[in-house]
Amino acid sequence: MTTPPEPLDPNLERWRLILGEAGDACRNGHALRQDAAGRDSALDWLYGRDEDLARRDVRTRTGGDGPSQLTTVDWLNQITKLFPKETIERLERDAVERYNIPDVLTDPDVLGRIEPNPTLLGAVLRTKHLMNPEVLALARRIVAAVVRELMDRLEVTVRQSFTGTRSRRPSRFRQARNFDVRRTIRANLGHYQPEQRRLLIEEAYFFGRTRRQLQPWQFILLVDQSGSMVSSVIHSAVTAACLWGLPGIRTHLVAFDTDVVDLTSDVDDPVELLLKVQLGGGTDIARAVTYGASLIDNPRRTIVAVVTDFYEGASPSALVHAVRRLVEQGSHVLGLAALDEEANPSYDRQTAQLLADVGAHVGAMTPAHLAEFIAETVSR
């Protein structure tokens, strides 16, 4: 009777999973445990297709118990059981972004199982024009789930930015959220009952709340919908939706490439808005800025934010002229090279500098920072 090989040491097993077949030397005849063999098979299914392995003369990975015959659905089910959530998200992101596995976005069974995330949302927006109605209906679920999560996070910041901060002045308005604990305790220490270890409150104190007095402002968000700006497009839609309906602010959202599309009527439904965006194509930033200028009622109470990589496909001089006119008439002009949670821009620095030279504020922001900027500007 043949004795089964002993399990591999966990530390060596981890290195074997990292290195694939090239790490077999560390096994010394020991077997991978069942769950480790499953992880190896799942990693091989994805990373074994890397063309760079052949170029570096690295042997193709193979699963622990032989070649993998996994389908995409099988693979998704397998990684859900074998890996932690953070690893699953990374594997799904690599499947979409790095290896462009087609059925991740075209197979209804796959779309029905995959966990919604921003990377998958970006891929959906890039390929939605290729989807049949059944797949697009499932893709809408992904769009809605990711948008809802992003909005839930941003709405807290927006509310804090626009409702005002607590002041140290007392208030006669008694609301639990404004309860001044320290002052109340100090004022009632004389009523402490040591036997019962209780403090009797004879009089409670509350903070006042400084409320920003808002006069009507316009916020015009011009968003470059070229393919490289997909993350900023997503966060622009969510930001506009969170700002929509705030007292004293009228929000506009305009998408552009070589054409300009006013999406303001859909701002309150960011899911529908994103599904209308057409990513790709050229860029005419000057045309978008000129259109934004036509929407302005009171220049000195207007913020124009242009979200773009500044690679102007039309006339840079026309763009500079359009931005200079906005600044000279008193509008606040933001040139945002990125509007997303990472705020890591990739942009044409020469064109961005030209706009900064005529008075635009150029940089990159997270949506939360943009909301804070708008709140500070309109409350001055």
From TrEMBL:
SUPFAM superfamilies: vWA-like (SSF53300). Pfam families: VWA_CoxE. Transmembrane segments: none annotated. CDD domains: VWA_YIEM_type. Residues 216-375 form the VWFA domain. PANTHER family: OUTER MEMBRANE LOLAB LIPOPROTEIN INSERTION APPARATUS (PTHR30634), OUTER-MEMBRANE LIPOPROTEIN LOLB (PTHR30634:SF16). This is VWA domain-containing protein.
